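Re: adenosine-5'-triphosphate structure - here you go.
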Amino acid sequence: MGPSGSGKSTLLSIVGLLSQPSEGAVFFDGQDVTQLRERERTQLRAERVGFVFQFPSLVNTLNVRENVLLPKMLRGRITKSDRTRADSLLAQVGLADRGEDRSYTLSGGEQRRVALARALIGDPPLVLADEPTGALDETTAEEMMGLFSRLQTAGKTVVMVTHDRSLTRFANRTVKIQSGVIDRCSTN
Ligand SMILES: Nc1ncnc2c1ncn2[C@@H]1O[C@H](COP(=O)(O)OP(=O)(O)OP(=O)(O)O)[C@@H](O)[C@H]1O
């Protein structure tokens, strides 16, 4: 959490190996990933990190299942087990019967759930979410947080940026950032 412009998205982008820090180092599972070559960083990111952004950015010309499979499509051929996993993830996010639908026919909250399923297709241990509940109504936001809690219970690490103070009750740890610096860190 932190005011607008304090560096939350920048931090997520550095933690998720999308950006290099201008100083300091990032350790991922004990490894200094700032020292890696770009190709190795890309591979680590593809295999270990799932991203969920405020805007789901689904591809309108693809159906819902294909959108979930997109990261796999970009990396090679889709296997039968990939399709089975996509359907299982869609069931987990409450969209079991929507796989064949065009993504633009889904509501905003449903599209975000598709984006979460897409982030999980590679079974990454780390999920980074930038304001995933922004502009969602309270009930849909709670549902989204329920999904994140289940991921956390299943052993994944979820790092989420939010402006909504009420959501801190879902977190094990809350970090407050001010002008690019950690101001406060509390454990729930
Ligand atoms: N690659 C970069 N180089 C230099 N400055 C950057 C870079 N990326 C972001 N910034 C700046 O860092 C500051 C923090 O941006 P960031 O998007 O992380 O804020 P935020 O806390 O996520 O804000 P918001 O809540 O408004 O989304 C901004 O002033 C932005 O312009």
